[in-house]
Amino acid sequence: MAEIGVKELKATASAVIEEVEAGAAYVITKRGRPAAVLLPIDEAVDVVLANADEYVRMRREAREAYAAGRSTKLEDLP
To answer: Are residues 1 and 33 both part of a single domain?
Structure first.
C-alpha cells in the first residue's frame, strides 16, 4: 500500500481519488506517521462489515467453539 502525506494529498486530492477509484489504496501519513487509510469503497465496505460488532462476536464464538472441540468438519455438512 502506497503512502502519501497529508500535504501531498491536499495538493493532489483529485488525482489520488481517481487512483483509489481504480483500485489503489493509500496509507495517509501525518508528520511521517500513519494516520488513516484511503481505500476503494468496495474494500472499505468489507473492512466495516468485518469489524461490525455482530461479526466480531460471531468470530469470537466460533473460535471458542473450535478450541473446545465443538466444530463440524466440512465433509460432515449436508
So the answer is: yes
How far is residue 27 from each of residues 33, 39, 72, measured CA to CA in Å? 9, 9, 39
Q: What is the DSSP letter of 59?
A: H
Domain of residue 52, residue span: 41-70
Helices (H), 1-78: 6-21, 41-50, 53-67
Strand, coil or helix: 39: coil
Does some domain include residue 77?
A: no
The 10s digit of each residue's pLDDT in 28-75 is 999 999 999 999 998 888 888 888 999 899 999 999 999 998 888 888
